[in-house]
Amino acid sequence: MRHLLSTADLAKDDAILLLDTAAQMAATQAREMKKLPTLRGRTVVNLFYEDSTRTRISFETAAKRLSADVINFSAKGSSVSKGESLKDTALTLHAMGADAVVVRHQASGAPHMLAHAGWLDAAVLNAGDGMHQHPTQALLDAFTIRRHLVGGGSDAGTEGTDLAGLRVAIVGDVLHSRVARSNVRLLHTLGARVTLVAPPTLLPVGVETWPCEVSYHLDETIERAKPDAVMMLRVQRERMSGGAGGAFFPSAQEYSRKFGLGSRRLARLPGHAIVMHPGPMNRGLEISADAADHARSVIVEQVANGIAVRMAALYLLLAGNDAGAGSVPNERTSL
Ligand code: NCD
């Protein structure tokens, strides 16, 4: 594996190797000294053309915990606002000796272009492109699901395991969600059964060809599918023309009533079920404050797990070949 562009490119073995490596990385993060020397002397560039809080900070933290040099580049305040093209930006990063480029871009396909146009000689990691893919988010979600629903809250005994037999409901604005697209693919590869739940106006054309079931009724899905994990999606108003979401559903109240997760629906989920959200949340719209802060919510843990997953991705892409994929340095050998 040279780049991480889409979960559709990940065979089951690749996905499990990433999750197992992330588990080893997570173990190193429980130590007092969190920093590993693995990527010393390597340069990771964070190239963000779209807003981000969690993903950008998480990639930065991951690269720093592996001792890489990190350059943060955001389109606002750079020559991009003077009209510089992606190609010229890429050539600049190449001249600066970037070993990995983490890219978030509003255009679907921009990371693919960076990886394959020949402008750069660096590993490219997709941190979200348009409405297309967000592979590290799906990996951190799968990692969180495996930890809770296979490992009982820890990584013990999860090594090499997939998600066979687990049921995951992904609920809300699927149409605009790269998180949903990435998760459907990855969770299917890992053997989970996915049900997408959304109003017909928030489902993409062609969804019937995706490897999942589709439902228009959240209550019915909770009763029938008895999901082990419920992943709520943000209503992405910025991707809706007009901005208010008005063309896609009658009103915010109606959306919450039919597709929101609150205490009443939470109480009807199986006792062991977990509640997930990639963030940022619209509290009171797709998820109530009670549900977001409930003991069953693993939303804050998803953020913590993102660091371990991104450390694993950077490690496997940049050092995996020299160091032997999957063997994370430990105190004895490398510190
Ligand atoms: C997601 C994104 O940017 O695609 N957020 C994230 O990366 N944590 C989802 C969203 O913006 O709703």
From TrEMBL:
State the source organism's domain of life.
Answer: Bacteria
Instruction: List its EC numbers.
Output: 2.1.3.2
Task: Give every Aspartate/ornithine carbamoyltransferase Asp/Orn-binding domain span.
Answer: 165-317
In its UniProt entry, the species of origin is given as Myceligenerans pegani
Indicate what this protein is called per its UniProt record: Aspartate carbamoyltransferase
- Function in brief: Catalyzes the condensation of carbamoyl phosphate and aspartate to form carbamoyl aspartate and inorganic phosphate, the committed step in the de novo pyrimidine nucleotide biosynthesis pathway.
Question: Which residues does the record give as L-aspartate binding sites?
Answer: K82, R178, R234
Q: Which UniProt keywords apply?
A: Pyrimidine biosynthesis, Transferase
What is the enzyme's class at the highest EC level? transferase
In terms of SUPFAM superfamilies, this protein maps to: Aspartate/ornithine carbamoyltransferase
Q: Which chemical reaction does it catalyze? A: carbamoyl phosphate + L-aspartate = N-carbamoyl-L-aspartate + phosphate + H(+)
Record-linked InterPro entries:
Asp/Orn_carbamoyltranf_P-bd, Asp/Orn_carbamoylTrfase, Asp/Orn_carbamoylTrfase_sf, Asp_carbamoyltransf, Asp_carbamoyltransf_Asp/Orn-bd
Q: Which family does it belong to?
A: Belongs to the aspartate/ornithine carbamoyltransferase superfamily. ATCase family.
**GO molecular function terms noted in the UniProt entry:** aspartate carbamoyltransferase activity
The residue ranges of the Aspartate/ornithine carbamoyltransferase carbamoyl-P binding domain are: 2-146
**Which HAMAP family does UniProt cross-reference here?**
Asp_carb_tr
Where are the bilayer-spanning segments? none
Which residues hold carbamoyl phosphate?
R54, T55, R104, H134, Q137, G279, P280
